[in-house]
Amino acid sequence: MKKILLIILFCSFGIQVVSQIRSINDGFTNPQNGQGIMDRQVDSLKGEVKVKLSGKTKYTDYKIISQDNDTTIVDTTLTIKKYYKFNFTRKDNFELLAFHNQGQTFNKLAYDFENTSEWPDIGFKAKQFNNIDLKDVNYYHVPTPTTEIMYRTGLEQGQVLDALFTVNFSKRFNIGIAYRGLRSLGAYRRSLSSTGNFRFSFNYESPEGQYAIKGHAVNQDFMNQENGGLTETSLNAFLIDDPNFSSDRGRLDVNLNDAESVLEGKRLFVEQTYKIIYSRDTINDKDFSNLKIGHSYTRNSKLFEFKQGTASDFFDTNRVGETFTNKTNYLVHNNQIFLDFNSKYVLGKFRVKSGYTTYNYGYENLQNNLVDIQNNRLKGEAVSFGADWRGNVKNFQVKATGTLTPGRGRLSGNNLLVSALYKKDSIFSIKAKLHINNKMPDFNFLLHQSNYNKFNWDNDFANIGRRILGGEFESKWGSASLNISNIDNYTYFDKDGLPKQHKKNINYLKAKVSKEFKAWKLRLDNTIMYQKVADGSQVLRVPEFVTRNTLYYMDSWFKGSPLLVQIGATFKYFTKYKANAYNPLLGDFTIQNETEIGYPTIDLFFNGRVRRTRIYFKADNISSFFLKKNYLSAPNHPYRDFVIRFGLVWNWFI
Fold first, then answer.
1. From CA 556, how far away is CA 156, in angstroms rounded?
2. Are strands 288-308 and 193-205 parallel, antiparallel or unpaired?
3. Which residues does 626 contact at the CB level (< 8 Å), separation at least 6?
4. DSSP reduced 3-state for 432
5. Residue, of 156 and 388, whose pLDDT is higher
6. Residues 245 and 236 sit within 8 Å (Cβ to Cβ)
7. Residue ranges of E strands in 394-448
8. Hey, which of 118-122, 137-141, 346-350, 370-374 has the most confident mean pLDDT?
9. Minimum mean pLDDT among 97-101, 204-208, 436-440: which range?
C-alpha cells in the first residue's frame, strides 16, 4: 500500500510541476479531439516553460511503442473490448478460468502454444499470469506529460491500482514510470493476494537518428496465501448450498492453514544501435541503406518460494522437518549483437544476430537428505544464431524470425516464426502463420527439491517439439482464427504431482469466431471457440466449446452528449471437462480424473465515459442466485460468488 501511495504522490507532483507552464493562448484544447497544442520554449531566466500553440499536435501524436517497434496511439475510447480487459492483468481472459480472488491464479480453458519462449524458463507457471514479460513493456513518445490511472476494488478488502506517468524531455528522449499494486483479502480463509509490478522504461535517439538506445527495468513480486482448497466436508457444504455457510465463506474449512507462496522477478534490458550507413533514399535506389549495428543485454532473475509453518499430510506423509521454506532461484544473462539493413535484394528490413546466454537454476543447498538426489543446481551456457526479416512481397506483408541454438545442452533447440498478412483496404485482412519451436521443458520439470520426499526429482527429459499452423481473418463482418498444433514430448504433472512426458504425438485444434451485431442502440457481441484434442486428450484437457455473449445498450446521454454509457449482461459458458487441479507447492497445475467442471455464469455491468475517464460497475456472477452451486475454478476451489465491484481508467494529458 505504501508503494501505491508513493506512485499517486509522484503523479500528483508531476502534475503540479507541469502546471507551472504558462499558456500564451487561451485557446488550448483537448489533445484527444486532435486540436491544439504546442511548441515549447524554455525561458531560463524566469524558470518556466512558455507554450506557443501551433495547431500541429494531435491525439495521434501520443504514441505507444512495443518491443518490436510497432506503434499504436493512446486510446481513451469506451469499447466492449476494453471492458473485457478491465481486470488486474489488463488482458482479455476469455480463454482462462479465474480463481475466486483477484491476484490468484487461473485455470486454462484453452492453450496458446504460439507464444512460446526460445529457452526454458524457471517454470511455476500458475504464479506467472500477472508477470510482465519482455514483450509486455511499452515505450512512449508523447508531446505533453501523460498519466493513466487504473483502479478497481477487490474482494472483501483491498484494491488494484495501475498507475503510469510518461514524459518526453525532448522529441528524442522519453521516460515512463509505472507501478501496478494489488491487495485483496478474498472470501475464503487463507486466500490473501498481494502483488506488485514496477516498470521503468526509457528511449533516446540522437539528433540525426544515428545513435539510439532504449531499455527498461522491471521488479515484480506475487505473494499468495495458499489454502489447498476446501476440505471434503466443506466442499460438500458449498455444493449443496448449506445456509450455515452461504453468507460467510470464511467459515468453511480449508486444507492448509499456514502455507504461502511467493514469486519474485527482476529484469534489466538495454538495447543500443548505431547507424553506419544512413540514407533517406528508398531501398529501390540503393543496394543497401540504413546499415546499423546493435547490441542488447538482458538480465532476468526469478525466485519461487514455498513456505509452511507446519507440515501437512495433504502433500505427503514422508518428509523432512515440520517447518520449512523451499527457495528455487533462476538467473539468465543474454548478450546479443546484431546487424540491421535495408536492401532491394531482400525486399525489406533484414537483421542477422548472434547471442551468448548463460543460465543458473537451482537451490542454495540440498533440501532433503532422505532422497537420493545429489544435484542442487543446473548451470550452462550456449551460443545462438538467427535472423529476422520484415518485407513486402506484392500485396503481402511478411515477417519472419528464426533462431538456432546448436549443441546438446539444456538451451539447445530452434525457433522459427513466419507470418504473411494480406490486407484489402479497410474491408478485410487475412493472415497465415507458421511456428516451429524445439526446446527443453521448463527447469522445474528437470530439477525440483522439497522437504516432502515425493516432490524431489532430477530428470533428463527430451526437447518438446511444437509445430503450429494457423490463420486469422478480420473484416467488418466479423473475425475468425484457426490454429492446428502438433506436439512431441508434451510435458505435464500427473495426478500425483510428478513430472511426465507424453511419448505420443498430440494434435490440438482450436477455432474461434467473433461477431458483433448492431440494431438501434443495442449490440450483441459474440465469441465462440471450438477445441478438439486427438491422440493426447488424457493429458491435454480442454472443454469442447467455450462461448461468451454480451448483450448491451450503448448511447450518449444528456445535452451535448457528455456521458457515453454501456449497460448490459455477459453470458459465458464452457462444456464440462476434467479441469486441472492446482498444487501450491509446485506453483503449477496437475491432471486429475475425478472432478468434471463446466457451467454458465452471468455478469451485469454499467460502463460510462466522461471525457477521458472510463467508469466501470460490474455485478459478478448474478447467476449464483438461481443456478446450482457447482461453479468451481479447479477441484476443491470454488469460483467467486455474487459481488459488486467498481473501477475506473483515467487519462491526463497535460
1. 33
2. unpaired
3. none
4. strand
5. 388
6. no
7. 396-405, 413-424, 428-439, 447-448
8. 137-141
9. 204-208
Look at the chain and count its residues: 654
Helix (H) or strand (E) holding 227: none
Place of cell 533514399: 281
Write the Ramachandran bin of 265: left for phi over 0, alpha for psi from -120 to 50, otherwise beta.
Answer: beta
E strand residue ranges, 47-172? 48-53, 63-65, 71-73, 96-98, 106-108, 139-141, 146-153, 158-170
Q: Are 415 and 436 in contact (CB under 8 A)?
A: yes
- How many helices (H) does the chain have, and how many strands (E)? 4, 38
Contact assessment for residue 100 and residue 638, using Cβ atoms and an 8 Å cutoff: yes
Give yes or no for a contact between 337 and 369, defined as CB atoms under 8 angstroms apart: no
Proportion of the chain above pLDDT 90, given as a percent: 74
Distance of CA 220 to CAs 128, 272, 305, 501, 586, Å? 10, 25, 14, 31, 19
Question: Could you tell me if residue 407 is left (phi over 0), alpha (psi between -120 and 50 degrees) or otherwise beta?
Answer: left
Which residues neighbour 197 within 8 Å (Cβ) at sequence distance 6 or greater? 130, 132, 178, 179, 180, 181, 218, 219, 220
- pTM for the whole structure: 0.88
Residue 15 backbone dihedrals phi, psi, to 5 degrees: -65, -45
Predicted confidence (pLDDT) per residue in 448-502, tens digit: 999 999 999 999 999 999 999 999 999 988 999 999 999 999 999 999 999 999 9
3-state SS, residue 5: helix
Q: Residue 220: which of 129, 97, 93 has the closest Cα?
A: 129
Q: Residue 284 pLDDT > 50, yes or no? A: no
Count the alpha carbons within 13 Å of 385 in the hemisphere toward its beta carbon. Answer: 2
Kind of pairing between the strands at 22-23 and 48-53: parallel
> Burial, 57: exposed, middle or buried (Cβ in 10 Å; 0-12, 13-18, 19+)?
buried
C-alpha span between 413 and 439 (Å, rounded): 5
Sheet holding 38-43, edge to edge: 22-23, 48-53, 38-43
In 386-476, alpha helices (H): 443-446
Find, among 313, 414, 309, 305, the residue nearest to 363 by Cα.
305
User: Which of 88-94's residues contact partners 24+ apart within 8 Å by CB, and which partners?
Assistant: 88/130, 88/152, 88/160, 88/180, 88/182, 88/195, 89/129, 89/130, 90/150, 90/162, 94/527, 94/529, 94/546, 94/548
In this predicted structure, the answer to whether residue 147 has a pLDDT above a threshold of 60 is: yes
CA distances to 317, 318, 453 from 313, rounded to whole Å, are 5, 8, 12
